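Q: How would the structure tokens look for this protein?
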Amino acid sequence: MNPDFRDLLSAFNAQGVEYLVVGAYALAAHGRVRATGDLDIRIRAAPDNAGRVMKALRAFGAPLQDLTLDDLSQPGIVFQIGIAPLRINILTSIDGITFDEAWPARVLTTVFAQPVAVLSVEHLSAATSR
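A: Here is the predicted structure in token form.
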């Protein structure tokens, strides 16, 4: 895992952000490796969590000039950090599953000695069945 990805997840954990790794890194956590360069993170789109996300992004050093708490509190927003292929996508919603449905079924794994919350394999299937 790219050190920037690790550092952002560490900042999220330090601030108590409710998040789920989704996409190819989530597939890899379930033993289904797919080539990717970006990290997709689904956050809970709620005002209290948005504040924690902003604190974590600030600590990480993300460019925040165009991002607001309202952005992180509403569905359908994608905030991108970096340039492909090593981009971080922070998503306030994903197709096929709500955060409240996915959160209780999350899988906790360890990456670089820190806990990482990952979307369950069942919910990955729901999110990719369009």
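The first helix runs from residue 3 to 15.

The chain has a mean pLDDT of 89.

Upvote if useful.
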